[in-house]
Design a protein that fits this description.
This protein has helices at about 15-20, 25-35, 40-50, 55-80, 90-100, 110-140, 145-175, 180-190, 195-205, 210-225, 225-235, 240-260. By secondary structure, the protein is mainly α. Helix 4 packs antiparallel against helix 7 and helix 5 (about 90-100) runs antiparallel to helix 9. The longest helix has about 30 residues, at about 145-175. Bound molecules: fe (ii) ion (2 copies). The site of one fe (ii) ion (FE2) has 6 residues, from helix 4 and helix 7.
Length: about 260
């Protein structure tokens, strides 16, 4: 059973006046809805990659995918409630057709433990992003969006924990050391750049400058992004002791900022 159900969210109580002309919010939430609702493509690739794993495969099918799809549906409904003039479906159809080509198993890491680490980086990205959205929504005085973002962020942390269990399991065979782990994490962070966001942006606001949107995103991150949470989650698989952890944390935080995250 999912921990929450978007059908019980009181979308009809949203005070549209407060946010309907917030163009940045519109883009951010719509982009997120596109990416989340496309999780079925990832689920298929992940299930193929981990074929034969009797823990992870049923979990991916029965829990992970439905939860990611619910994230997409809850955000889609939010967009359709606040910005009814936007044709979500036709913009999404364009996005899915173009982006679908990038969702291939070739993008995966070469081994099962490494791919688990990559998934942990992705879930770190999503859980921290929604935490940021939650804070932003609170600052805007929009409790419904804050509630949705809070629910999603918690789900993503839970996904992170399950992938961590998978990582530990496979790493008992692969024996990746701290240097290897750091390399995989760093490479995945760099890769997590813009491809999906760029394509979504193109179909949501055709002709608008993506660099302008990126600049807005940076300003948003500076104010609301939970860097400490991100650093903690990224460093966790290294199992460092407190002393080393504190010394490494500021380096990673700096790296995140350089990468524009
Ligand atoms: Fe999600
Ligand atoms: Fe997730």
């Amino acid at each position: 059973m999912a921990r929450w159900n978007y059908k019980t969210i009181a979308y009809d109580t949203i005070d549209r006046e407060k946010i309907a002309n917030n163009d940045f919010l519109f883009k951010v939430i719509t982009i997120a809805s596109f990416i989340e609702i496309t999780s079925d493509l990832y689920e298929k690739n992940l299930v193929t990659f981990y074929e034969g794993d009797e823990q992870i495969v049923p979990w991916l099918r029965e829990v992970w995918e439905p939860e990611e799809i619910q994230h997409g549906k809850s955000l889609k409904k939010y967009v359709e409630t606040v910005w009814p003039e936007f044709d979500w479906q036709s913009a999404y159809d364009g996005f899915r057709e173009e982006y679908g080509k990038y969702c291939t198993i070739d993008e995966f890491q070469p081994t099962r433990a490494r791919e688990m680490l990559a998934r942990m980086v992705v879930e770190t990205g999503t859980s921290t992003f929604y935490k940021g959205v939650e804070k932003y929504a609170e600052a805007l005085g929009e409790p419904i969006l804050a509630q949705i973002a809070h629910n999603i962020s918690k789900d993503e942390v839970y996904h992170y924990d399950r992938f961590d269990e998978g990582f530990e399991k496979y790493n008992r065979r692969e024996h990746l050391g701290r240097t290897d782990i750091t390399k995989v994490i760093y490479a995945r962070l760099k890769e997590a750049s813009d491809e999906d966001i760029f394509i979504a942006h193109k179909y949501i606001v055709p002709g608008e400058n993506f660099e302008d949107f990126k600049a807005q995103t940076k300003a948003f991150a500076k104010q609301y992004y939970p860097y400490k949470m991100a650093v903690k989650m990224l460093m966790y698989p290294l199992h460092l002791n407190k002393h080393v952890e504190n010394a490494t944390a500021s380096t990673i935080q700096g790296a995140l900022k350089v990468l524009g995250i």
